[in-house]
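Issue: ligand-bound run for farnesyl diphosphate - logging full I/O for the record.

Environment: standard queue, default settings, no custom constraints.

Inputs:
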Amino acid sequence: MQIADIQPERLPRHIAIILDGNGRWAKKNGKLRQQGHKAGADNIEVIGDAMIEYGIPFLTVYAFSTENWKRSTEEVSYLMGLMKRYLMKNKQDALRKGIRIRVIGDRSKLSDDLQVLIREMERDTKDMTRLNLTFAINYGGRDEIVRAVRRAAQDVKQGILAPEQLDEAAFSAYLDTCELPDPDLMIRTSAEQRISNFLLWQLAYSEFYFSDRLWPDFTPEDLLAAIQDYASRERRFGGRVKEAKA
Ligand code: FPP
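Outputs:
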């Protein structure tokens, strides 16, 4: 099976992934949890390259949730350091490969230096178009919706927005994902079958795919299997097959 065997119109345009299983991978391989996260971060690059090879332009990964602050101080600071190192190390690579990097989530709670690195990465890669790689960092779907409601309410208060104007499309523009299409396919690794507060609004009509692989073990071939499975599904968007949008 190759990507070319799938009809192009059946390919997903946006894949969102819950990267789960780094800790279990470390345990299984007799390594420290931190090494599991490092292997997980390295695998984002491998899967990003596969997305480019397969011609799928949007990848969004759940790197740190609003609930992940509950982990030990050591683990949280290791993950924050890993993100900083990633942003410092990968800019040239992103520019060479044509990757635009964005971050969604409440970045105001991140350290100042991480915020600066994020801003610079977003600014410097903004003209790249081959792959739109979005990291969800300090991200929670409910939190994103609440922040969006707050901004919309502020605009109503200031007379910029009339309450009747607020429909689904207008509301989407207040979300962190305002520049992204909704995911067509959501993948979660490591055999868990939960949404864990990821993209609650945006996943309304997405197809879900659950893989038994632990995230650091998830390969381009596994990604292809998920895409192939997606391509075989009939998406109805709440309508009947012949009325389907795609
Ligand atoms: C879930 O594994 C994974 C996370 C909470 C973090 C995901 C983060 C990365 C892959 C690295 C982020 C780095 C960059 C560069 C964005 P888990 O720890 O919950 O695994 P377990 O359930 O097996 O313990």
